[in-house]
Amino acid sequence: MSSPEANAGKKPAKLYTAVKVVNKITDFTAGALTVVLLIVVLTQVIGRLLEQSPPWTVELTRYVFIWMIFLGVSLGFRKDESPRITFFVNLFPQKTQKVIMMVTLIVTYGFFVFLFFTGLSLMGQQMDEISPVLRVSIAWVGLCMPVSACLSIFNLTQFLFSPHNEEQKGEK
Amino acid sequence: GENENTSGNAEGSQTGGGSAEGTEDTGEEGNNNQETVSINFATPDPENASITVAANEFADRVEEKSDGSIEVEVHGDGSLYGGDPSAAINQLGEGSLDMLALSSTVYANSESKFNAISIPYLYDDKDQYIDLLNDDLGQQLLENIKDSGINGLNYWPRNFRQITNSVNPINEPSDLEGLKLRVPNNPLWVDFFEAAGANPTPMDFGEVYNALQLGTIDGQENPVEIPVNANFYEVQDYISMTNHMADAWVVGINSEVFNEISSEQQDIIQNTADEMQQWLREYDTDQTEEMIQTLKDQGMEVNEVSDENQQKFVEISQSQYSSFRDVVGDDEYFNKVLEFVGKAQ
Amino acid sequence: MSIFLIVLFFLFMMIGLPVAVSLGVSSIVTIFAFSDIPLNIVAQSMFSSMNSFIMVAVPLFILTGIIMDEGNVAKEIFNFSKSVVGWLSGGLGHVNIFASLIFAGMAGSSVADVASTGRISINAMHQNGYSKQYATAVTLVSSMLATVIPPSILMVIAASTAGVSIGQALFAGLIPGLIIALIMMVINYIYCKKKNIGDKTTFSPKYIVKSFLHAFPALLAPVILLGGILSGYFTATEAAAIAALYTLIIAVVVYRGVTIRELPGIFFRTAKLTGTILFIAVTAQVASWVFEFDGLPGQIAAYVSSVSDNPTIILFLLFIFLLIVGMFMDATAAIFVLTPILLPTINAVGIDPLFFVVFMVMVLSFGLITPPVGVCLYAASHITGLSIEEISKSTVPWMLIAILMLMIFIIFPDLITEPTSWLNL
Ligand code: NA
Ligand code: NA
Q1: 8 Å CB contact of C14 and A145
Q2: How many CA atoms are closer than 13 Å to the CA of A88, on its beta-carbon side?
Q3: Is A145 on the interface with C (CB under 8 A)?
């Protein structure tokens, strides 16, 4: 993993550390959301069995779930894991494949830029909407979309410049 | 918010184009100059549910009165907003829905005063409920949603909510003791039923049928058409006419769509929305009798709550007024509503 | 406008754009080109798509699968299966199928089955006189069980998209799954006996008891899961959390295949995998909105009803359609895109939506093992080093049998819907 960074200057090394920190934070948050989700659903079961159902379980579950999904979406782009069909592309000659790959990259970037701005605008609409039990603004839930869009762009770029991807290019 | 989608799925209705196509200067009068507008009208429930029946009736009337210059396409079952009620309000305000009938409890998430409509045991009877909706107290709330680009045409009434369960008939508060009752995520429900001794349980509506069947929960509460349409009678023994709470359909139209049509067309839409209030009330009354008969035929036991016991429930609700006051979020408004229904303390 | 969207979607998908992004972009372009609807609807639909409690079962089933995979549970299942059916003719073939059957009762994804019990089965079969091709074919076909038998991620997705009770849909897969497993074992028996291939173990009650005790905590998982739902302790969605907690405990405490230190990584991978899978659901909701706005589901229902009002004929047509779709499209994506479009048709011709959901999942799970687009097929190729062509060739006879089995369910739909009522569901 370290080869391209090792022979690079000081600046890229700093950049590399920053990238690692962002990755760590998102990974930790995504994992933590999984745990919270599990605990909240279990709380719902236990609460009902003990005849002391907390009213917030269904609501909190949904909000944690949405955040988890949208963070998860962005994580799928760090190593290009989002399902795609390469069967047809592979039928083309190498050069054409590269052009097609560029097109798909640009379209994917465009999609997330679009998602970022419409996500922000949706948050604007959600600002005044207060969740019935937890009394939080739904905009906090909607925030997951612009965040996911940013992280997807971030991860997509990371993949583009990752050593793994360089290797692939080298082989070709 | 509570907008129960019943089990069945609406057949996808066909739609024409979309929002009002740019009409020219509105100064012109007379049918000949009116451009044809196509309006989509979304409801949360399937085709056979009363709100969707009413929306279709509204569509027919408007088309007839406007000589076909207003076409209304009804999309039931929340299909035009992915079944997410909060999304529906946003879409209506922003223009991807033209018209919408949605429960006042959903609007309450952004205008908390709508909660006042659903205070438990607020009304003496249905007349008083409709009077409140039509009073300035109700109408001013429709004004308040104008900011989000929604023209609130009027309220359409909804049946009061009843409790079904498989433990015992609910005649008085003590019958609720320890009952695992599925309620919507809303402090009005949770606080009231907790105070009444029940164990209010939050659960996604999609899981309620199986949960009732397998005894995960004992009961649920909804307007009478829900146990009928969602086949709860197959898995519930008792329906108690507790009439404990109400909500209302807020019928709204996107402001831009409304402003772009001719004033004559505006009048037709407004007047028809107004007259549908009475129509739906009568329709629901007829339907309720039929539905209760259906539930009896399916083996459910139906019981009414006596006036005396009703008063016990009212007192429990009153004991929670301080909490309801917070939920409504406006002391003055809360007091005025209590005054209007004669329950000021 | 629907046609435009569909054509654009296939174009984008074929040039290798991620499936979810293809759906999203083609929807955005369509809305922009054909209507004056504000594009905010895109973000709103995407948000709403995940604002659902029912779908929460998906990450929880995924978590269970990952824990089992890392917790050496598959090995215990394999050993137990070997003791129970390994002594029959075609022994390890039966073991392969039987292990998948047990795995199916604990985990909800076919790929996970191929990667865990499948991997072990293929190696064992290969070392004991079965050809790699045959071992892989059996592995692939039996991996369908994981999707059909509860718990099942695809079943949860299909039921929640169709508005069918997920409890009912999950249980409805149980009997068909058992029938499929039985037929597969019969075929394996006949084939191996005829060709006289494969070693068999000796029947040993002592070995059965020993391996049973080892596998017992794992075998208890389906019992807790299904028993808990049926006895009303928890709902089907909540059961997913109970299952995750239970496998977590046995993997860490009993089998010690997972250490506490590894847990953060497992939770992280759960979020990533769930997001990657459900991303398709997120953008499919936008496409569904366009279809509904355009009136497509109603038009299709009207058209199909005009062709025939015989449910069996309609189901045969749908069967062929879904088979083709399943070959080219990811099963999850197909469910999200097609369910809202087809449901009005199903209702119009009077097919039980519960039957439709289970049937659709069975047909699409078949698509997981067929070329050119089949995740299980690719997983098997990865494990065995065999090419897609080699595997596909050896799977053909099994595929024909699977198609025949699916047709049985069209002719006898009660096989799917009736057992749920025995369970009082
Ligand atoms: Na399974
Ligand atoms: Na197998």
Answers
A1: no
A2: 14
A3: yes
Mutation for B interface: C35, C37, C234, C357, most B CBs within 10 A: C37
CA distances from C297 to C48, C300, C345 (A): 20, 5, 7
Integer CA distances (angstroms), C3 to C48, C301, C307, C402, in order? 24, 16, 20, 32
Mean pLDDT of C61-68: 90
Return d(Cα C148, Cα C402) in angstroms, integer. Answer: 13
Range C11-34 average pLDDT: 93
Q: How would residue B4 be classed by pLDDT, with cut points 50, 70 and 90?
A: very low
Helices of type H across C149-262: 153-162, 166-172, 174-195, 205-230, 236-249
Confidence of residue A5 (pLDDT cuts 50, 70, 90): very low
The per-residue pLDDT of chain C, averaged, comes to 90
Q: Between vectors from CA C113 to CA C108 and to CA C115, what angle results, nearest 5°?
A: 130
pLDDT in tens, A27-55: 999 999 999 999 999 999 999 999 888 99
Q: How many angstroms away from the CA of A57 is the closest CA of chain C?
A: 10
Q: Do C59 and A65 make contact, defined as CB atoms within 8 angstroms?
A: yes
Q: What CA–CA distance (Å, rounded) separates A64 from A40? A: 9
Is residue B10 over pLDDT 80?
A: no
Q: What pLDDT is attached to residue C108?
A: 87
The reported pLDDT for the residue numbered C416 is 87
A87-104 confidence digits (pLDDT tens): 788 888 999 999 999 999
**Cα distance from A22 to chain C (closest Cα, Å)?**
14
Q: Is residue C414 helix, strand or coil?
A: helix
Q: Are C210 and A14 in contact (CB under 8 A)?
A: no
Query: C-alpha dihedral over B211, B213, B215, B221, to 10 degrees?
Result: 70
- Which structural domain range is residue A154 located in? 4-171
Q: How far apart are CA B256 and CA B19, in angstroms?
A: 9
Helices C331-348, C153-162: axis angle to 10 degrees equals 40
Residue in B90, B108, B112 nearest the CB of A125: B90
pTM of the model: 0.88
Rg (CA), chain B: 20
In angstroms, the CA B118 to CA B320 distance is 13
Q: What pLDDT does residue C98 have?
A: 95
3-state secondary structure B77-123: CCHHHCCCHHHHHHHHHHCCCCEEEEEHHHHCCCCHHHHHHHCCCCC
**Those residues with Cβ within 8 angstroms of residue C104's Cβ, 6 or more apart along the chain or in another chain:** C113, C145, C146, C147, C148, C149, C177
Whole-number Å distance between alpha carbons of C375 and C369: 7
Q: How many domains does chain A have?
A: 1
Residues 6+ apart with CB under 8 A from B99: B39, B40, B41, B42, B72, B92, B251, B252, B253, B254, B257
Q: Please report residues of B whose CB lies closer than 8 A to that of C47.
A: 84, 87
Interhelix angle C174-195/C91-104, nearest 10 degrees: 170
**CB pair distance less than 8 Å for B207 and C293:** no
